[in-house]
Design goal:
The chain is of the alpha/beta class. It folds into two domains: about 150 residues, Rossmann fold (3-Layer(aba) Sandwich), CATH 3.40.50.720; about 160 residues, Dihydrodipicolinate Reductase, domain 2, CATH 3.30.360. It has nine helices and 14 strands. The strands form two sheets. A seven-stranded parallel β-sheet has the order 3-2-1-4-5-7-6, with helices on both faces. Strands 9-10-8-11-14-13-12 form a seven-stranded mixed β-sheet, with helices on one face. The radius of gyration is 19 Å and the shape is globular.
């Protein structure tokens, strides 16, 4: 199946290219960016020299079977209707088609002009998404992936109150992309852990909607996001109260039921598996590491992912696998931690 990437020079775009070049059923033929570049200057694979790299103005002259959009939400909003009108499938890694119920102007700063396409977009959270449907998959956001994967088993099994949740999530600087910004300079982030978008992060409504679809429960949570002085990785601490008579055994059973058949999540009791808390053990992989601890009726959940992979590029490959009727972990299960 032929593939192309729009936004290929960004951090996520390059990770996508790296994965697609070695995928057994994907043929990456074209990459597009706002400025001239050669993929071989960024990736060492000999296959990179075979990929034609072109400016964005050439996208519609070289449409492929599947187009990956690693672009800002406003750009995806403009491109998606034109691409699917040509009968091509899209995996969009922006937030342009994730929110079904919430106001885009409030959370993203623009009016959504493609409501019919938005209504049909499939939210691609693995392993909860199910079979691929339609022409457009909205790839989940990085924070949303880490947090929903941890909360869904607890809420789905009625272990916690959906109105008593605190989320404290922290990300490496690549989550903000390559665009130059003073607050992302090394001298600004080194030695700091600065909260940002407190209570206003655009992934919050995405989390609420995704959880409601799977569990039929609408959460009301306190959520803060902070910037870590590291290049990549997300660690989310999630705190809640177990319902009366619920125990660590109920938590263990809920996660086993949810993820026993899904090879890209490791989960376990924090005291028995402390390495699940380590960013170094998950960065570079397509996995999520989820750990939990119960103290009386207090539940502590922790979710760690690589924001560029499980939070973006490798989950997009999982969605490509669903389109292609392949095992979900094809082309990503071999990835090793960058320790």
């Amino acid at each position: 199946m032929t593939c192309s990437i729009v936004g290929a020079r960004g951090y996520v775009g390059l990770e996508l290219a790296r994965l697609l070049l070695h995928h057994p059923r994907a043929a990456l033929t074209h990459c597009f960016a706002t400025s001239e570049f050669k993929l071989a200057n960024y990736l060492s694979s000999k296959n990179a020299t075979r990929v034609e790299c072109l400016p964005d103005s050439e996208i519609f002259n070289y449409l492929t079977d599947v187009v990956f959009l690693a672009t800002p939400a406003e750009v995806s909003l403009q491109l998606v209707p034109k691409i699917i009108a040509q009968g091509k499938k899209v995996i969009d890694l922006s937030g342009a088609f994730r929110l079904k119920k919430n106001d885009y102007l409030a959370w993203y700063g623009f009016e959504h002009t493609e409501k019919k396409i938005l209504a049909k977009a499939q939210y691609g959270l693995s392993p909860w998404a199910g079979p691929s449907t339609g022409m457009l998959i909205a790839n989940p956001g990085c924070y949303a992936t880490a947090i929903t994967l941890a909360l869904i088993p607890a809420l789905k099994n009625g272990l916690i109150n959906e109105n008593n949740i605190v989320i404290d999530a922290k990300s490496g600087t690549t989550g903000a992309g390559k665009k130059a910004s003073e607050n992302l300079l090394f001298t600004e982030v080194d030695g700091e852990c600065l909260p940002y978008k407190v209570g206003r992060h655009q992934h919050y409504p995405e989390i609420v909607e995704a959880i409601e679809v799977v569990t039929n429960k609408k959460i009301e949570a306190h959520m803060t996001t902070s910037l870590l002085p590291v290049r990549r990785g997300i660690i989310a601490g999630i705190y809640s109260q177990l319902h009366n008579k619920k125990t660590i055994k109920d938590v263990e059973a809920a996660f086993a039921e949810a993820y026993r058949e899904y090879s890209l999540i490791s989960y376990g009791n924090l005291e028995a598996s402390p390495k699940l808390l380590s960013l170094k053990n998950v960065v570079g992989t397509a996995r999520a590491h989820i750990s939990y601890k119960v103290d009386g009726q207090k539940l502590y959940l922790f979710s760690c992912i690589d924001n560029l992979l499980k939070g973006a590029a490798s989950q997009a490959i999982e969605n490509f696998n669903r389109i292609s009727d392949l095992p979900i972990s094809t082309g990503v299960s071999h990835l090793e931690a960058l320790t």
